[in-house]
Amino acid sequence: MKVDRVIRNKQWLASLHLGPRNSAEQTISPVRSPKVSIPPADSNDGENKDPNRGTAKLPNDIGSTISTAIVTRKSRYSGADGARGDISTLENPVETASKGALPRRIYILGNGNVGKLVAHSLAGIPNRPPITFLLHHQGAVNQWYKGGKSIEIIQHGAAERSSGFDVELTSSHDRDKPSHLQTQSSIHNLVVSVKAPATLEALSTIAHRLGRESTLLFINEGMGIPDELNKKLFTDPETRPGYMVGVSTHGLRTLSSFSSTVYGIGTIALGLLPQQGFGVSEQTSPVLSPSARYLLRTMTRTPSLAAMGLTAIDLYQLQLEKLVGKAIVDTLTAVFNCRNGDLLDNFGVTRVMRLLISEISLVIRSLPELQGIPNLDLRFSPSKLEHLIVSLVKTSASQKSSMLQEVERGIMTEIDYSTGYIVRRGKDLGIRCVMNYMLMQMVKGKQNMESRKIEGILSVDKSEIPSIEK
């Protein structure tokens, strides 16, 4: 009986029309399901028109196998209709777009390393979505045309180029214009890859193009960005866009404005951020909007990104673990002006590191949104965090931290979104993080000194300047 059932299923699959009628009708599912030809959205079959046309339901015994998503871990969400499901059962974003329900274009704000990797990876998938870079100064646009209007990603010594992208220049002058003179095209799918300190200013230039139907995917370092946006930019919950957060472990290094090298292959963990912030329970999982659904499925069907979906609470803990690395390694290397590996086998540095870790561990284990999480005290114990830091330093011993490079260039660091986040949360909980606060001010002070040196305005004793008078 089992053999007969398998034969019947194979015959049923063979009877499906799997080939596209033309290139315009070709659809590629983000999961490993058969490709089904879908008629244009404006087709009309009169009385015989089927509202479910364009979809094919698989038998229960093989449907679960064929519709397995490429993500390694399934995240459970509440759908727009209130029904619960996992990522592998969400609607195909390509099919949704073909019906005219949702624009397929994905905008990427900034030309950061992760933004370049995402654009290059999306350009290589079947039925690629239209992609537009949003650049905030003319110099970046000039570099784009000078570089041949393409992105270069170097991995294992081999360079790959991708093209076919659009570019828009955003400006603060656009938002100050009368509404009838502003750029009116709405942005539904936005990937934010600018530095954390520049996120508020960058988004403010396109805030009039974002609305409740929009989804913002933050794939940048640091924490606390959505809270800042809610307080200063998207103050009305009724018109506020939805937020998604991505935690990337890909090792990337900038070569030029539109060229990066990959020195470490990692993953990108994705999750939907509830309007009230991280830490919601499974019973109050956020609603997955059409744009969030489309972004999630498009990212997870891109093999080179190795993207996977997580629940909000799991992603929050993953973010905190990465935050600990930046709050310890980046800040100490910036203060000591050393590479990551120089922090090892140094008694004085180890003592400082343990004092910082003890404060961070106490704050994280006291966060109200994490209470009741199994093994919380073990996962974020001082000894566990110290082991995490040592492992991070060993794997990146020869590298300079991003914060050290920012200090050397005299530009604003992300200290307020790493150590600063710990200090702020500790203050809310009545925990004084004096060691982390002191280290944060030391980094800010050193960055200010380097900035003044570069600008040539460092105060100098005039008595030491030789006279040029004859």
Write the layout of secondary structure elements.
Elements: H1 2-15, H2 60-66, E1 76-78, E2 84-86, H3 93-98, E3 106-109, H4 113-122, E4 131-135, H5 138-146, E5 150-155, E6 158-163, E7 166-169, H6 172-176, E8 189-192, H7 199-204, E9 215-218, H8 225-232, E10 242-248, E11 251-256, E12 259-264, E13 268-273, H9 290-300, E14 307-309, H10 312-336, H11 347-366, H12 376-379, H13 382-395, H14 402-409, H15 419-428, H16 434-455
Parallel strand pairs: 3-4, 3-8, 4-7, 5-12, 8-9, 9-10, 13-14
Antiparallel strand pairs: 1-2, 5-6, 10-13, 11-12
Description:
- There is one protein chain.
- With 470 residues, this protein is α/β, with parallel strands linked by helices.
- The chain has 16 helices and 14 strands.
- The strands form 3 sheets. The protein has an 8-stranded mixed beta sheet with strand order 7-4-3-8-9-10-13-14. A 4-stranded mixed beta sheet has the order 6-5-12-11, with helices on one face.
- It is globular.
- Residues 12-99, 279-284 and 462-470 have low confidence and may be disordered.
